[in-house]
Amino acid sequence: MKSLFCSGLAAILLVGMTASCEDALEEPVVADGSAGAAGGADSGTGGTAGTGGSGGSIVPEGGADAESPDSASDGAPSDAPAEASCSGSTKECSGQCVSIDDPAWGCTASSCTACDLPHATAGCASGACSVASCEPSWADCNATAADGCEVDLNTELTHCGACDSVCAFAQATASCEGGECKFVACESGYSDCDADTGNGCEANTQDDEANCGACGNVCAGTECKTGKCDNEPPVTLASSGAAPTDIALDADNVYWSSSTGVHRVAKSGGAPTVLAAAGEPRGIALDATHIYWTDASSFSVMSMSLSGGEAIALATGQEHPWRVATDGVHVYWTDHGAVRRVPVAGGDVVDIATLLPDPAGIVVDATHAYFTDATLGTVNRVPLAGGIVMQLASWQSSPMWLAVDATSVYFATNTANGAVKKVPVAGGSTVALAAGVRAPLAVATYGGWVHFTDESAVKKISVQGGTTVTLAETQGTPNAIVVDATRAYWTNQVGETVMSVAR
Fold it and tell me: Do residues 241 and 311 share a domain?
């Protein structure tokens, strides 16, 4: 067969071909101007006379089924993408033509980086990333695409609910909650006496003679100076006949304890009433229906209805019950070595803080009891149910009484060179509001002021500090103090009186 095939092949070979038939079969060679060799089976095509033919490729080891390229161009595989050629409104990104107006590819002809705008859905405008829409409650108030939708309309005071909608009240603090502007509180020294938050806190209670110190406190023929009617003398509500100790208030009456019992008198004055004549009451506290006190002679904690009746012992066998407080659910008191509580209707006594040498004053809020320890020189708090005692202030000089509001605990250091101080309810730095005070003892807070008793005077100072204002002088050793919206009330140990003055 080989010789027959070669004979046929010789008839068509051109003159000048020198290779033998066997050479042509074994090693095909193509020369310029010569005929192309016949392609091998399944391997290529034969060339035409006068041109270089395309030779068939050599079948690799592994046989005819082995993979081979479809062309001999640079050895590149057949599935390699062709180089993109983009024009008009497209550009090449990641081997494909994309729109120059697609924010997923950067909007410009020169960038393939996606537009990423905070709190916004991106779009394209004039060949640049732009804000197409904002997330709910967010807005692009500065019309700057780079920072996206930069304003939270739910909380921003200058853009409350809408761009440039300012949330503010005169002489007051405000908050933006859910896109709604809300009145929070008056600044110190101002009050909303007309009950119209639209005009903010319109009354300057520091110099308004119709609202001096508080709404409705009228100075009769005198000036209002620093929240007090000038030269208004204090009023004697009761001469107790015994040294009064602690004091408490409800809407209409003043209550106090003394060595002869528990007493009550109307805020407007009049004849005092003896509620309980037995024992030796010390600290007292009120809720809406009952009065509570500690009794040093019977070592007990007592209760009585405000309408009168029998005194009931809530806790007996106490070592040295001292100050007392209530939240309307439990009664809390300080004793030697511990802070305790009992239900207002009586029941089990529970220690909420122990291992204390000399706990003294105590007040409560919705979550914690706050107390001083005169020997340790500390101001502390403990959960109402008991738990870990946290020191809010330490290294203080004989702290006794204390008061609390939403942000701070107030107390006095009772020394010859004392001070009135505050510390955050959650802990932090102690701040002296009034320093160099002769002998401050009891404190009470109301309306942005701290009221306190001093050696022979009753004074007040803003909760932010500043100038101390004297409310009453030449008092006979003022002891405990309480305040309401218009007046301050205190007990005088030496004079054995219960007093009142416009605050």
Answer: yes
Give the residues across from 278 on adjacent strands: none
Our count of domains for the chain comes to: 3
With a CB cutoff of 8 Å and minimum separation 6, the contacts of 20 are none
H or E stretch at 277: none
Tell me, yes or no, whether 112 lies in a domain.
no
Looking from the CA of 343 toward its CB, the CA atoms found within 13 Å total: 4
Tokens representing residue 286 in the block: 């009120």
The answer to whether 321 and 333 are in contact (CB under 8 A) is yes
Tell me the residue range of the domain where 486 lies: 234-502
Does 447 share its domain with 320? Answer: yes
| Cα 493 to Cα 332: distance, rounded to the nearest angstrom | 25
In the chain, pLDDT over 90 holds for what percent of residues? 60
Cβ atoms of 58 and 68 within 8 Å: the answer is: no
- Write out the H or E segment, with its range, that includes residue 379: strand 378-383
Using an 8 Å Cβ cutoff, are 211 and 205 in contact?
yes
Per the DSSP assignment, residues forming a β-bridge with 187 are: none
Q: Which residue has the tokens 């009050």?
A: 191
pLDDT digits (tens, 9 = 90+) for 259-316: 889 999 999 888 999 999 878 999 999 999 999 999 999 999 999 999 988 999 999 9
366 and 352 part of one domain? yes
Q: How confident is the model at residue 4 (pLDDT cuts 50, 70, 90)?
A: very low
Which two structure tokens, joined as six digits, stand for 106?
Answer: 């950067």
Instruction: State the DSSP code for 10.
Output: H
Q: By the 8 A CB rule, do 174 and 168 touch? A: yes
